[in-house]
């Protein structure tokens, strides 16, 4: 499929490319993804769907994505700096970054490819769908979300992550002694998570912590004068069947 024609035609092709590339719950090797983007922007060769790891309508399986060893998941990796640091510090662990925005996946994939980090995978999906459709019971060692949207308005609370039902699913997906870590700038949201976590098979530790993750949102709140954040650490003590 040679990419030829007018600039307008190329732009239409780019939109169709993005629609195919970022369909629901597709997983990408960061280097393969970056190669595919470069090939498309060069406009010299066809789009090869084989470069997508486990794309398409069939349900993906972790056994085809990750080598043997621990698996960590970051929900909403943003600029990817913390995800990349964790991956470089733990080369024997596979990291799956979940993000809904294709532009963020593309941007972070460029960083990862430039650094030749080969133990990161990207999942373009909402977190709820990912944990329901992709991850299997007792498959993950650690899950974390740094500064997720607190949805502060009462009418929006239904959109918050880490409800009781979601935490029960998180428990089911974690291995014995696995951990969940949530850090937020909103103390109200943090306390809400603690209440939701009761009876979900976790021991719960919550505390105020200083800035330490160096994410985009942590830097933003720190620059605005916030000198502490609310951390919830969940340690699995009992497995729940769901």
Protein architecture, described:
With 242 residues, the protein is α/β, with parallel strands linked by helices. It has one domain: Rossmann fold, CATH 3.40.50.150. 36% of the residues lie in helices and 22% in strands. It has eight helices and eight strands. The chain has an eight-stranded mixed beta sheet, with helices on both faces. β2, α3 and β3 form a beta-alpha-beta unit. α2 packs across α4. It is globular.
CATH topology group: Rossmann fold
Overall helicity? 25-40%
Strand content: 15-25%
Q: Sheet with the most strands?
A: 8 strands, mixed
- The CATH architecture designation is 3-Layer(aba) Sandwich
Care to count the β-strands?
8
CATH class: Alpha Beta
Give the mean pLDDT.
78
Q: Kindly report the spatial arrangement of strands forming the biggest sheet.
A: 1-4-3-2-5-6-8-7
Total domains: 1
By helix and strand content, what is the structural category? alpha/beta
The N- and C-terminal alpha carbons lie at a distance of: 46 Å
Q: So what's the overall shape?
A: globular
> What is the number of helices?
8
Kindly report the oligomeric state of this protein. Answer: single chain
CATH superfamily: Vaccinia Virus protein VP39
